[in-house]
Write a structure and sequence with these properties.
The protein has 452 residues and is mainly alpha-helical. It has a single domain, classed as Serine Threonine Protein Phosphatase 5, Tetratricopeptide repeat (Alpha Horseshoe). The chain has helices spanning 2-24, 37-43, 47-50, 57-60, 69-73, 78-84, 95-115, 124-148, 180-197, 210-224, 227-240, 286-290, 298-302, 331-344, 348-360, 377-391, 398-405, 439-445, and strands at residues 65-66, 161-164, 177-179, 265-267, 283-284, 303-306, 312-315, 329-330, 415-419, 422-426. This is RagB/SusD family nutrient uptake outer membrane protein.
Length: 452
């Protein structure tokens, strides 16, 4: 019966895809085939396809919020209910997998078209296309690695499962799971090609530029524990773009105070919509809320007091200025990467300078900001990691941070969820941190499921 259900679902997915393709076809089929650099450039302007629909299950599994029993039971999507309690059960939802690989496919199309114009390698259009395509592919692949793979460790990365790496636009390419090490190397190589080709400035909102690629590399290297490279790319990014929002200029009374495409945004990316994380459903973790100082404007900018569940809070701080969760790249994240690594390396001066520069922009200017002055690198690191959680709440970082920090005995954490009288637990370094692949994907492609 299970196989019949999954096969039926797969057929439905294929039928829907075929219908969409039919509806999108132009009267003249020749118009659908990109042939020029201009065509490839236009492919990368598809904001709906390339900048949205990124995986959300990691955020569903994070510890930044909770659901009441009634709210959890009211979720109609079984996969999302299971993700909330880290249930090790088969998933059928294919969108977490399908949407990023659609981005990969479009990026590969642009790369293949550009390859026909190698004699124009120095032209600005060629470099913009080839840089953009490699950036989008890197970002999409990394979103899949963060969700479906275990935490990166140099000792095990060669043996651990990665994800299939598709480098062509051929729909018949066989899917094979690469190693975790090879997956990360592909992501890094793509980001490096992007950084070498992307323009310093980009007029089209949603398209990446040089600082975007530097930020992507800093994020990936931090995740890998390669702190030297992460620091270098974070610093390079901030040399290109160090803009920070002054939260005093935002209106806490607005429904969504943080504007779309604001000066901190290095690359705009949106997660797939998910009911557990709706502003009217997710209740913010009470310990997290209490960690904000009364003069820290992030509390009023990011959250709204809620009376349905007494003394609870909803989230309203999306960098997309709506209910969709933002998972892109920002300068604020890069400041935190630089501060964290400076502290880890014992460079307290740079760590303090960096974290204080960020936090001052979040402080109510009617009250003098008091600099963090902690001189012990270990204690300072704990402060910076706490500020990282407070700053990047619901920005697609917490799941990845939990995974990487669990490798360090100082920071590993057991997660607990209560649903009624039932307690669910996620142990540090559990195999569940690598979310199962959709059973539909496994059955259609033949690739192996994650280890359990």
């Amino acid at each position: 019966m299970k196989n019949i259900f999954n096969i039926g679902l797969a057929i439905c997915v294929l039928v829907v895809s075929s219908c969409n393709e039919f509806l999108e076809k132009k009267p003249d089929i020749k118009m659908t085939i990109p042939k020029t650099l201009q065509d490839a450039d236009l492919l990368l302007n598809d904001y709906a396809a390339l900048n949205s629909g990124y995986p959300i299950w990691g955020e569903i599994g994070s510890d930044d919020y909770y659901l009441t029993k009634a709210r959890w039971e009211g979720l109609s999507n079984v996969d999302q209910r299971n993700a909330y309690i880290w249930a090790d059960l088969p998933y059928t939802d294919v969108t977490q997998w399908q949407r990023p690989y659609k981005t990969v496919y479009i990026a590969n199309q642009a790369i293949e078209v550009s390859a026909k114009f190698n004699n124009n390698k120095q032209s600005l259009l060629y470099k913009r296309v080839i840089g953009g395509a490699h950036f989008f592919r890197a970002f999409a692949l990394h979103s899949l690695v963060e969700l479906h793979c275990s935490a990166y460790s140099n000792a095990t990365a060669k043996m651990e499962f990665g994800i299939p790496i598709h480098r062509t636009a051929g729909v018949d390419e066989v899917s094979v799971r690469s190693s975790l090490e090879d997956s990360y190397m592909q992501i890094i190589n793509d980001y490096k090609i992007a950084s070498n080709n992307l323009p310093i400035l980009e007029a089209v909102k949603g398209r990446p530029f040089k600082a975007s690629a530097y930020a992507g590399l800093a994020r990936v290297y931090l995740e890998m524990g390669n702190y030297n490279q992460a620091y270098l790319y974070a610093d390079s990014c901030l040399q290109e773009n160090s803009n920070l929002l002054d939260f005093n200029s935002l209106k806490s009374t607005d429904s969504y105070p943080v504007s779309r495409f604001n000066i901190e945004v290095l690359f705009s990316a949106l997660a797939e919509s998910a009911a557990p994380l709706y502003p009217t459903t997710a209740l913010m973790d009470t310990i997290l809320i209490k960690s904000y100082n009364q003069h820290d404007l992030r509390k009023s900018i990011f959250f709204r007091v809620n009376d349905n569940a007494l003394d609870s809070y909803y989230y309203k701080g999306s960098y997309d200025q709506n209910t969709t969760l933002f998972c892109g790249l920002t300068t604020s994240e890069v400041y935190l990467i630089k501060a964290e690594i400076a502290s880890r390396s014992g460079d307290v001066t740079v760590a303090l300078e960096t974290i204080n520069k960020l936090l001052k922009t979040r402080w109510n200017n009617k009250v003098p900001y008091v600099n963090i002055v902690e001189n012990d690198p270990e204690r300072l690191l704990k402060i910076i990691l706490q500020e990282r959680r407070k700053e990047l709440v619901f920005r697609g970082r917490r799941w990845s941070d939990l995974k990487r920090l669990n490798l360090d005995p100082r920071f590993k954490k057991t997660l607990n969820r209560s649903v009624g009288d039932k307690l669910y637990t996620l142990e540090p370094n559990s195999n569940k941190y690598a979310f199962r692949l959709s059973e539909t994907v496994v059955e259609l492609s033949g690739i192996p499921q994650n280890k359990r």
